[in-house]
Amino acid sequence: MPEGPSIVILRELAEPFAGKTIAHASGNSKTIDMAALEGQPLLQVASWDKHFLLRLPTLSLRIHFLLFGSYRINERKDAVPRLQLTFDDGDELNFYACSVKPVDADLDAVYDWRGDVMNAQWDAALARKKLRTRPDMLVCDALLDQDIFAGVGNIIKNEVLFRIRVHPLSTIGALPAPKLRALVQEARQYSFDFLEWKKAYTLKAHWLAHAKKICPRCHIALHKASLGKTQRRSFFCTRCQKQYEHKETA
Prior knowledge:
Elements: H1 4-14, E1 22-26, H2 34-37, E2 44-48, E3 51-55, E4 60-64, E5 70-73, E6 83-87, E7 92-96, E8 99-103, H3 107-110, H4 124-132, H5 139-142, H6 154-163, H7 177-199, E9 223-227, E10 232-236
Antiparallel strand pairs: 1-6, 2-3, 3-4, 4-8, 5-7, 6-7, 9-10
Helix pairs in contact: 1-7, 6-7
């Protein structure tokens, strides 16, 4: 499943399509009235979390790539697309093995852009406020909570926790204030680092913990486990990543 930075790359590639008119729409999606899309101009290309968004005058399209989704711009795969949009100048957007759903045309009414770590409207103070209401939440779950950190995925989770030296089974309420601020700050910073490295095709070369076996700081074996409510893979060092545990008072 692509993380937020990968969707930002798609958004940037598709931004030149804004202002063009859909000449033909097709595909095997059962949720979209293809004929109703034809003749509509593409007003805006946007992204939120792992959602790629196309705003039209009467509705918007939300595309989620699930586990195996993909896209092609001005080229096609040897497969039936879930959605194929051909524009008035002959350019194409093709989406495969993904979820395509209509949403309200007013995206501002549907999405709180302040919660997307890669959005210009990202609100770090709001993220900290949400976290403080969940003192018993594990940090490994918190980073994957899309209501708090929209766009953060498992790679970012593991790398952020390694960067700030926090064990994934730490609880939010037990984190010292500087660590809570670092958690929020690095969730955004690493997302932009991820974007830069992804564009340069060097992302994996920069991983310090995710899918690694040895801690680059302590030179001991990293632990691998499926943790938290999400049961997503965590890679962590028990020596340099401190476990902060929240203890309820009687």
